[in-house]
Specification:
Blueprint lengths: L2 H7 L13 H6 L4 E5 L2 E4 L4 E4 L2 H4 L8 H13 L11 H13 L6 E5 L2 H18 L7 E5 L8 H6 L3 H4 L9 E3 L5 H4 L15 H9 L4 E6 L15 H12 L2 E5 L13 H5 L5 E4 L11 E5 L1 H7 L19 H17 L1 H17 L7 E7 L2 E6 L8 H13 L1 E2 L1 E3 L2 E4 L7 H17 L2
Parallel strand pairs: 3-13, 5-6, 5-7, 7-8, 8-9
Antiparallel strand pairs: 1-2, 2-3, 4-10, 9-10, 11-12, 12-15, 14-15
Helix pairs in contact: 4-14, 5-14, 6-13, 15-17, 16-17
Length: 442
């Protein structure tokens, strides 16, 4: 075996400290992906693995898109890097304009980041700066939601509602949380938005009464919570939350890092639900996962409130080395071209009925206590093993990979979000593998 193939097939696993991974467990039996094309990964030993989660909720247009690779390669040879502080390059303005055309009406001011975590922290800082610019600097409280995931920056961890992401770290003072919306007792096996739970938006009234609405800067929620296990909002919930934020002068932020760029059947979840926030955070699908990139969409009113004072004064003391990176913008523009040409931003709406029927066919399988779906997202909730929460879910993940499917699990919840290019037959293939594994896992 030559050196190259030896390195490919038998790498040293010691140096790489893997994120969100049980490192010792993984390295004792690694699952290594060597290539990808279309709907499939390929392992180092040549097995085909159907991608059941779009990589990590990001490869919406499928793997190995030559248009994106070509655009990035050409851009690196033309202009590999340009600073975005007091300088600019044409592609950043072109990409921002293209994104603004997709956005809900009025959210047409774009701030570039390098990830979803950066997008969230950027949006939170914009919210605080906005209120200060308007003379309401006392608005410093940031409201998240239980079971929410908003990345791993200190701001995102503070408003996030997943305990394992929070317990080891300091969080921002003043961060509070709405109650979550998961209600298996009343909403088990809902198809689309669950019927019960709109009243849970009124938790914002409780926090406003407790702290004073004039102290709250922003509320941030995922329209459909992803990392906690695909939690669609109850009917009317987002509308109620929007109304309360408007009532109290609180900015509403939608974290669309997962739901953005076609996951629910429109460019953004805000358009699907007919609820317009003041800020939207995005990443992942903005470049089809091919380049680290994120974008915050701000309303014109939020942006314009910051455009005050002397014209030579910086309006927002914030940014990143790689904000608007030339290669990232090239990847993003090529990605948007694919989405537009292939109709992928609305394809989830076409696939949703078949997807819903497929995933709900697993009702009645061993240990399945709930199934949830919206757009081209779904979750299968499993009952935990006594005294071993998460063990059943992890076994399903491993066995599914062995059987030819890449899935995600959060504890004992299976999360699925296949690429938007999937055919109905491929969706059936994916669900079929999951179903066969469920039958075998005690």
């Amino acid at each position: 075996m030559d050196d190259a193939s030896d390195r490919l097939n038998r790498p040293s696993l010691d140096a790489y400290w893997m994120p969100f991974t049980a490192n010792r467990q993984f390295k004792s039996a690694p699952r290594l992906l060597a290539a990808a094309k279309g709907m499939f990964y390929q392992t180092e030993d040549g097995r085909q693995i159907i991608d059941g989660c779009s990589g990590l909720w990001c490869v919406n247009a499928g793997h190995g898109r030559e248009e994106i690779a070509s655009a990035v390669g050409q851009q690196l040879l033309t202009l590999d890097y340009a600073p975005s502080f007091q300088m600019g390059h044409p592609l950043a303005f072109d990409f921002a304009t293209a994104l603004a055309k997709l956005a809900p009406a009025g959210l047409d001011r774009i701030f570039f980041t390098s990830s979803g975590s950066e997008s969230v922290d950027t949006a939170l800082k914009i919210a605080l700066a906005y209120h200060r610019a308007r003379g309401e600097g006392q608005r410093t409280r940031l409201i998240g939601r239980e079971k929410g995931y908003h990345g791993v920056g200190f701001g995102g961890v503070s408003v996030g509602g997943l305990v394992n992401n929070r317990r080891a770290f300091l969080t921002l003072p003043g961060a509070q949380h709405l109650g979550h919306t998961l209600d298996i007792e009343r909403n088990a096996f809902s198809k689309g938005a669950p019927r019960f739970g709109v009243e849970r938006a009124d938790d914002l009234e409780r926090l406003a009464a407790l702290h004073g609405p004039e102290t709250i800067a922003a509320v941030i929620v995922e329209p459909v919570a992803g990392s906690a296990g695909v939690l669609p909002p109850p009917l009317g919930y987002l509308e109620r939350l929007r109304a309360l934020c408007t009532k109290y002068g609180i900015l509403l932020i939608f974290d669309e890092v997962i739901t953005g760029f076609g996951r629910l059947g429109a460019p953004f979840a805000a358009q699907v639900f007919g609820v317009t926030p003041d800020l939207i955070t995005t990443a992942k699908g903005v470049t089809n996962g091919a380049f680290p990139m994120g974008a915050v969409f701000a309303s014109r009113s939020v942006h314009d409130a910051m455009m005050t004072g002397p014209e030579n004064a910086m309006e927002l003391f914030h940014g990143y080395t790689y904000s608007g990176h030339p290669a990232g913008c090239a990847a993003g523009l090529a990605t948007l071209d694919i989405y537009r040409r292939e109709g992928l931003l609305t394809r989830a709406a076409e696939l949703a009925p078949a997807w819903e029927a497929a995933v709900h066919s697993l009702r009645g399988y061993p240990n399945v206590i709930d199934i949830r779906n919206f757009g081209l997202m779904a979750a299968i909730e499993l009952s935990p093993r006594p005294d071993a929460p998460g063990a059943r879910g992890y076994e399903v993940l491993v066995r599914a990979f062995e059987a030819g499917a890449l899935i995600r699990t959060t504890g004992d919840t299976i999360a699925l979000s296949p690429p938007l290019i999937a055919s109905p037959a491929q969706l059936e293939q994916l669900v079929g593998i999951v179903g066969s594994v469920l039958k075998d896992v005690a």
